[in-house]
Amino acid sequence: MANNAIFARLSNLWSGFISLWVSDVEKAHPEIAYQNAIASMIEKYTQLKAATGAIIARRQEITARLDTAERELASVAADLETALATNQDDLAVVLIQKKNTLDAAIAELRADATQATADADNAKDSLTQVKTEIDKLKAEKDRMLAQMHSAQARLKIQGQLDGLSVDAEVQALGAVRDHIKSQVAQASLGSELRESDLDVRLNKLRQSSASVTAKAQLEAMKQARAAAQSAPAKTL
């Protein structure tokens, strides 16, 4: 008993592994899972179609038997009227018995025909339902596979974008910026140092003094020239 229990557990464990493996394969290849489901539905549709055909054939056979019985009943009824009219009681008795048998058979055939018609209608409805399910499954397959391919494309693009590393380039650009700022600061510092240098300030002072001296000389020359121009007029 214990060995049987162990084998049963091992069998269940193996079945579980196989089920998980098949499930993973179907997730990786959903088109295969959809195609298998569609093939299964088509097989079911084919079997149901054959069964529906047999049911319809039975309904047609019952209907044909009913038509034959009803025609025979009409003939017996006519013969019975003739026998009654001609006072052939012996024939009338036989015809009445035949008529009763036909009435019973026709009642049974009508019940069978009603049931056969209902069975055929149900079978046709089931057939239509399975066909609709197959069409829906095909449409779902196309829609879901298109969504999967779109999602895979987006994931691939995201993966490519995630794989692009711009940190090194950005860091290099930051170093370049710092270097440029340092160069600008050094240039400004040199200019500031020159501005504060005593020799530079003295040279500027000398240049300013020379300019003032030149302007004073220019003014003196203008005054002397004006004085010279006014001197002959006083002599006359």
Automatic annotation (TrEMBL):
Residues 59-154 form a coiled coil. The keyword Transmembrane does not apply. Keywords: Coiled coil. Pfam families: PspA_IM30. The keyword Coiled coil applies. Belongs to the PspA/Vipp/IM30 family. This is PspA/IM30 family protein. It comes from Rhodoferax lithotrophicus.
